[in-house]
TrEMBL record:
<dbReference type="Pfam" id="PF01935">
    <property type="entry name" value="DUF87"/>
</dbReference>
<dbReference type="InterPro" id="IPR027417">
    <property type="entry name" value="P-loop_NTPase"/>
</dbReference>
<dbReference type="InterPro" id="IPR008571">
    <property type="entry name" value="HerA-like"/>
</dbReference>
<dbReference type="InterPro" id="IPR003593">
    <property type="entry name" value="AAA+_ATPase"/>
</dbReference>
<feature type="domain" description="AAA+ ATPase">
    <location>
        <begin position="24"/>
        <end position="347"/>
    </location>
</feature>
<protein>
    <recommendedName>
        <fullName>AAA+ ATPase domain-containing protein</fullName>
    </recommendedName>
</protein>
<dbReference type="InterPro" id="IPR014588">
    <property type="entry name" value="ATPase_Atu1862_pred"/>
</dbReference>
<dbReference type="InterPro" id="IPR002789">
    <property type="entry name" value="HerA_central"/>
</dbReference>
<feature type="region of interest" description="Disordered">
    <location>
        <begin position="247"/>
        <end position="266"/>
    </location>
</feature>
Length: 507
């Protein structure tokens, strides 16, 4: 069944229709400067398609919450929920086919990115039985998939960009159709924008944006000047769901309206203040916080107190410079660091804790063990953590063969290197291939589906080859190294060894 929804009128006065089924398969990119009518266009699209398809709106400014009264959308205020809560909410909304608006108003940029990523991940990781068609609209998409790093942390940017990439690159097979709107194409990550096959380009003034818009629409560079002349609500359309040739159209009216309307000119009050200076510059009222008790400075932690007491007790004369360590002392110190790291990873939830939290605990334990001067920095700790999760000691990792494996792992994202290393360790030792649960723990997730996708991704990079035998057991071979794991059950429990523990081969 073909569903054509009316978006407005073409420049010739004909009805401008959008093929909804084609849109679900090919995605949509909307671009235009502030005030060009992007939000109005999205609202028209959502209203016209609401009876036909489930919708999810990522709303950074709270403009689309008014859809709830007219069309029954569930409004989710992100600031009232944790990231984990929003991830579950996204999954449940998909399962029960409830259209929802994720209202991110009131949050700073970093928390907007984290919560939007969690909600998108919940919808993306829903079980296959619930992959119903769904329209996912992201307003101001450059906030969630920025082309360059901004003021937010690298972790938040990585989470948000990964969720947006999944939506636009891999969402189609899961029934997710991304509709993204941005003020400038130059601000939007290219791998996100490149996956759209339908385009609606509104008014823009910068030469670089006009040139990119003209290239996307197949127009000549000299025709790019036309984007400056577009009025509010006018767009140039191209794509299999819209038109096979660039087509000018004007978006029609909407039934609902945003809470924040466009500013209008208002006359100044006729009666001027008699004494503006006295009113405006009057002394401010007393602060209500004055009666509150002053917050005390946080007390130093126990380690700081011990270090301070030690510095007072010892002789203030400078200590002589310590002699260089011998090879035996260096090896002994390295072994102690390895033991501390293995003890941390032996804790049940260590695989699912953030690396910053693990590093803090590592630092504290090193100080307790008297290794304050030997604490590695965060970069070195990441490398040690990757090796430790694969059960490698520092001495083993220095072997030439493992140096080659480490070099190959460095071509993967940081969070995937540990997965590659545990597979390499199992292959080198002839152990059964790690199960999905062990791979998921090495990546820091509880999702077995994500573990299987990780193996597929690493295989696509040309680093491994996965094979299954007639009993459903998996064997992984490392390309060029000729290392291969023994056949292993993908559904085996999480029994990833942290040291040189022998594994029995699968029956």
């Amino acid at each position: 069944m073909t569903v054509a929804i009316e978006m407005g009128q073409t420049n010739s006065g004909a009805t401008a229709a959008l093929d909804l089924e084609e849109l679900l398969a090919t995605r949509l990119l909307v671009q235009g400067n502030s005030g060009s009518g992007k939000s109005h266009l999205l609202r028209r699209l959502l209203e016209q398609s609401a009876p036909w398809v489930q919708q999810a709106i990522i709303d950074p400014e709270g403009d689309f919450v008014t859809l709830a009264e007219r069309f029954g959308h569930l409004v989710i205020n992100a600031e009232d929920h944790t990231e984990r809560g929003l991830q579950v909410a996204g999954e449940r909304a998909r399962i029960h086919r409830v259209s929802a608006v994720l209202n991110l108003e009131g949050l700073d940029a970093e928390n907007q990115m984290r919560r939007a990523a969690a909600y998108l991940d919940g919808m993306f990781n829903t079980a296959r039985d619930h992959w119903y068609p769904m329209l996912v609209v992201v307003d101001e998409a450059q906030l969630f998939a920025p082309a360059v790093a901004g003021e937010v942390s690298d972790e938040a940017r990585k989470l948000s960009l990964g969720a947006m990439t999944n939506l636009m690159c891999r969402g189609r097979k899961r029934g997710l159709a991304g509709v993204i709107a941005t003020q400038r194409l130059a601000k939007l990550a290219k791998n996100v924008a490149a996956e759209a096959s339908n385009f609606l380009m509104g008014r823009t003034f910068l030469d670089i944006d006009m040139a990119r818009a003209a290239d996307l629409l197949g127009m000549e560079r000299r025709q790019a000047e036309a984007f400056r002349d577009l009025e509010r609500g006018q767009f140039m359309a191209l794509g299999p769901a819209l038109s096979r040739r660039p087509l000018g159209l004007r978006i029609g009216p909407t039934e609902t309206h945003p809470r924040n309307s466009t500013p209008r000119l208002m006359p100044l009050p006729e009666a001027a203040l008699e004494d503006a200076r006295a009113v405006i510059l009057a002394a401010p009222p007393p602060e209500t916080t004055a009666t509150r008790p002053q917050r005390r400075a946080p007390a130093p932690d126990l380690l700081s107190q011990l270090m301070a007491a030690k510095s007072v007790a010892i002789d203030p004369t400078p200590e002589p410079e310590a002699p260089p360590l011998s090879d035996e002392q260096i090896a002994e110190r390295r072994d102690r660091l390895d033991r501390i790291l293995r003890a941390i990873l032996a804790e049940p939830d260590a695989g699912f804790r953030a690396i910053g939290v693990l590093y803090q605990e590592f630092v504290v334990r090193c100080r307790i063990e008297g290794l304050a001067t030997a604490i590695p920095d965060m970069t070195e700790f990441r490398r040690m953590l990757t090796h430790a999760r694969a059960g490698l000691t520092t001495e083993m990792a220095a072997d030439d063969a493992w140096q080659d494996v480490t070099l190959r792992a460095s071509t993967l994202p940081d969070d995937m290197q540990g997965v590659f290393m545990i597979i390499a360790r199992a292959a080198k030792e002839g152990w059964p291939c790690p199960g999905d649960a062990a791979i998921a723990r090495a990546y820091g997730t509880h999702s077995l589906r994500r573990a299987r996708r990780l193996l597929t991704y690493i295989e696509e990079q040309g680093l491994i080859v996965c094979q299954f035998d007639g009993a459903g057991r998996r064997t992984v071979t490392l390309v060029e190294l000729a290392w291969a794991t023994a056949p292993g059950d993908p559904n085996a429990p999480d029994d990833l060894p942290l040291e040189d523990e022998p594994r029995a081969a699968s029956a």
